[in-house]
Design goal:
Radius of gyration: 21 Å
Strand order of the largest sheet: 2-3-4
Number of helices: 6
Largest sheet: 3 strands, antiparallel
Order of helices and strands: EEEHHHHEEEHHE
Number of strands: 7
Structural class: alpha+beta
Helix content: 40-55%
Strand content: 15-25%
Length: 148
């Protein structure tokens, strides 16, 4: 019988390195509720393109109109995935439980909503991108033969 062993497993508490965080007296941590599966991606959804399209404005619920709308939505999804942009807000919403020991402008940041609502956009993007790369790192496992 083969036995699966974990050699390297990620911690659910991640201390990000941006903005010299590890050098502070109490470094901020991102606490993950789960990690994304290797094939799980978070493409940016370009909703405005679909909502502002002529298909939506002229939608009359006919078969031809429904088909055109589906084509428009699928094309927007393919375009978003191909652009290789990540929706960090969605990733955080699905995978991050909370943020510990982080504040900005005297305001404490504990939730995903706080993170994207209080932090300046560039700071949130930088930290989120780093957390995403960490979360996508793979754990290392090995299979060993079990001795009876």
């Amino acid at each position: 019988m083969a036995v699966l062993r974990s050699l390297k497993q990620k911690s659910r508490e991640y201390v990000f390195t941006a903005f010299d965080n590890p050098e502070s007296d109490r470094p901020a941590k991102i606490i993950f509720s789960r990690f994304p599966m290797p094939d799980e991606i978070y493409p940016t959804a370009n909703q405005k393109q679909v909502l502002d399209s002529s298909f939506v404005k002229n939608f009359d619920n006919t078969a031809k109109s429904r088909e055109a709308l589906v084509d428009c939505v699928v094309n927007a999804m393919v375009e978003n995935i191909a652009s290789n942009r990540t929706d960090y807000r969605r990733f955080f919403g699905e995978c991050v439980e909370r943020i510990d020991d982080l504040s900005y402008d005297g305001r404490e940041i504990k939730t995903v909503g706080d993170f994207f609502g209080i932090l300046p956009g560039e700071a949130a993007h930088s930290i989120a991108a780093e957390a995403y790369l960490y979360a996508k790192e793979t754990d290392v496992f090995t299979a060993a033969e079990k001795k009876s």
